[in-house]
Amino acid sequence: RYVRQLQRLQLLFSPTSADSRGARQFVEEAALDFARQHPDVVVYISPRSIPAPLLVAEYLNGTVREELIASKTSEEIVQLATKLAGQSGLDIIRIRKPFHTDNPSIQGQWHPLTNKPSALTVQGPRLQPQ
Amino acid sequence: VAKTSLTSPPWPEVKLPDPGEEAKHHAEVVQKVNRMIAAGQYGRLFAVVHFASKQWKVTSEDLIMMDNVLEAECGDRIRMEKVLLVGADDFTLIGRPLLGKELVRVEATVIEKTESWPKINMRFWKKHNYQRKRIIRNPQTVLRINTIEIFPCLS
């Protein structure tokens, strides 16, 4: 019952510029392996004349993340791609609590009157039990 | 000897019950709880699990985030041992300190392996022209607890 949150990975690079050498090596060697290891991710490879090579990741909730891959070796690009494949599309901001529950209390939430005897049974110096 | 205010201790005196009767009462309670578990009369279960050097109070279908890297891939089912406490609406099973593995089963799946938000680590000394800035990103894993099950093997 696990659905991977990554929808598409678009690899935009230019076939001539020097900083997309790692991207070209990745396409030649490791892209097929990556696509086979993650069968539910669609990988688009588009060589076009772009100023800097980009790896665009789209997630199921619509967020688009662009990462620069200029002057990176092909192993680094593989690691980046696996990291993006494991993420979900939520914003990477400070999260306040490392847990989240829909049903926080099962036995009833504590309030200051639990486990206290009621006023009807208290035996004090003046109060008589009613 | 006359009774003063210090002859007996100020706390109310508690009479302990007979150990034989106590043992019978314990056995009765244990069998009642066993029958309830076997009949399936509990609603939601919660458990206290020791995981990644922290203790979490966990129910089914809830999210937990660790600040480390697990060796499991995304989508792997994990069974959590080291369960300290299991409770339902009417009864709780307390372990000393752990409960047996034949009693409880807590299953979770790895949903996400991301990094944390970029934290800034900066050192600055004034009047010394010294400042170092470093951005730290920790790897994190998100788990979802699927089920908590108990089996009627108390004694």
From TrEMBL, chain A:
Q: State where it is primarily located.
A: mitochondrion
- Segments carrying the region annotation (Disordered) are 101-130
**What's in the GO CC field?**
mitochondrial large ribosomal subunit
UniProt keyword annotations, A-Z:
Mitochondrion, Ribonucleoprotein, Ribosomal protein
Superkingdom is Eukaryota
| Pfam families linked | L51_S25_CI-B8
Q: Where in the cell is it found?
A: Mitochondrion
Q: Which Gene3D superfamilies match?
A: Glutaredoxin
- Any one GO BP annotation for this protein: mitochondrial translation
Q: Which residues form the Ribosomal protein/NADH dehydrogenase domain?
A: 15-88
- Entry's Gene Ontology molecular function annotations: structural constituent of ribosome
Query: PANTHER family, from UniProt?
Result: 39S RIBOSOMAL PROTEIN L43 (PTHR21396), LARGE RIBOSOMAL SUBUNIT PROTEIN ML43 (PTHR21396:SF2)
**Belongs to which family?**
Belongs to the mitochondrion-specific ribosomal protein mL43 family.
Query: Under which name does UniProt file this protein?
Result: Large ribosomal subunit protein mL43
Native source organism of the sequence: Syrrhaptes paradoxus
Name the gene behind this protein.
Mrpl43
Automatic annotation (TrEMBL), chain B:
What is the top-level taxon of the source organism? Eukaryota
**What NCBIfam families does the database record attribute to this sequence?**
L21
- Keyword DNA repair set for record: no
Show the InterPro entries listed in the entry: bL21-like, bL21-like_sf, Ribosomal_bL21
**Region Disordered: start-end pairs:** 1-22
What's a GO cellular component annotated to this UniProt protein? mitochondrial large ribosomal subunit
Coiled-coil annotated residue ranges, if any: none
Query: Which one Pfam family would you cite for this protein?
Result: Ribosomal_L21p
- Could you state a single Gene Ontology molecular function term? structural constituent of ribosome
Say which family it is in: Belongs to the bacterial ribosomal protein bL21 family.
**Swiss-Prot/TrEMBL keywords:** Ribonucleoprotein, Ribosomal protein
Instruction: Name any Gene Ontology BP term.
Output: translation
Name of the protein in its database record = Large ribosomal subunit protein bL21m
